[in-house]
Design goal:
There is one protein chain. The chain contains 2 helices and 6 strands; from the N terminus they run αββββββα. The chain has one domain. The longest helix is centred in the first third of the chain and has 48 residues. Strands 1, 2, 3, 4, 5 and 6 form a 6-stranded antiparallel β-sheet that branches. The termini are far apart. Helix 1 packs across helix 2. By secondary structure, the chain is of the alpha+beta class. A hairpin with a 7-residue loop joins strand 5 and strand 6.
């Protein structure tokens, strides 16, 4: 197998995206802060649910910050409970898109866009987490 085509493709794409790589890396710290906020909120919910002996409500997970599934120039993390999830997508232009809660495999939405840092995005993330937990806990 010749690797020349793949080497040339990698070089072409690397040249195209050279400035984008640093822009993506600049988003990561802010997205990590939001991910930690989500993880703390989930931990508080889980601990109180366990204190009240309702372990069936505690199966929540906060995923890692990773490359976005849809956009090559973004990062994401997900919060899940069963088939319910929200996605937090950090974009190099300095914004975060919050998606959900929605059932995986179904149409995604609702979506909202917020500044990458600050009270607005933190409050919106908290609201989405509450909606996720409520939706995933319906009987």
């Amino acid at each position: 197998m010749s690797t020349q085509r793949f080497e040339a493709l990698a070089q072409t794409l690397a040249e195209r995206d050279r400035s984008l790589a640093s822009a993506i890396l600049a988003v990561e710290p802010a997205l990590e802060v939001l991910r930690e906020r989500a993880a703390r909120a989930v931990a508080v919910f889980v601990n109180v649910a366990l204190e009240h002996r309702v372990p069936h409500l505690t199966h929540l997970s906060v995923g890692p910050v990773e490359p976005d599934e849809k956009h090559i120039d973004c990062l994401q993390f997900k919060v899940r409970r069963g088939r319910w999830e929200i996605v937090c997508v950090g974009k190099p232009r300095g914004v975060v898109t919050l998606v959900g809660p929605y059932r995986s495999g179904k149409q995604e939405g609702p979506c909202s866009e917020h500044p990458l840092h600050g009270n607005e995005v933190e409050a919106a993330l908290d609201d989405r987490l509450v909606e996720l937990i409520q939706s995933a806990s319906e009987r």
